[in-house]
Amino acid sequence: xxxPTTEEENELKEVLTKAELPxxxxxFKSSGVTFELLPKLTxxxxxxxxxxxxxxxxxxxxxVTDHEGNVSKGCTPSPLSELESNFLRATxxxxxxxxxxxxxxxxxxxxPINLIxxxxxxxxxxxxxxxxxxxxxxxLFSSDxxxxxxxxxxxxTLLMALLRNFTKIKEPVTTWNKMxxxxxxxxxxxxxxxxxxxxxxxxxxxxxLSNKEFHDMWNELKDNSGGW
Length: 228
Description:
Blueprint: H1 4-18, H2 25-30, H3 43-48, H4 54-73, H5 82-109, H6 112-121, H7 123-127, H8 156-165, H9 187-202, H10 211-226
């Protein structure tokens, strides 16, 4: 039987691997972070030891929660093929994690305390924008009954529309409707890539991704949202 130290180290390694962060094992060990400490860590704790990407921190928290749930229930995850697992992981990143990162980016450009005034000042311009729909008005403008604007009430489609037409993110050279060239690392290009990848997942009728497709998409999505 393994001693507790080895057993705990194996659990730490397992969680980091599930979160796609096995390279942090050495950092955690040198910083005195044990498996038992993982559930108690905060975003600030993780940033202090070098885990600077929001996506990485959220993935780690999810892996810890999943691990604890499986242990407490005495169960193991339903068997999935590697290609199905690739698809589910990419979908979680694109639809659960990326919107949070984009919302943080939006809030950094438009602090919540000033947002309602800023939106009201551009009300006419935004209402004439085809990408901002009438059903969005009550959560955007005081004249439509909104008393407190919160970006957490915006879905990703609305956030994207506001970033393009309100924040005035510069349009990529290849336009908003084509996948940008790899060398284009502008904010506008990152938004377009995220939209294209999400659409690709939404229209993937097989619900699978090859290892190459997964790693290409995963790395690009992480790179596109990491700086936000």
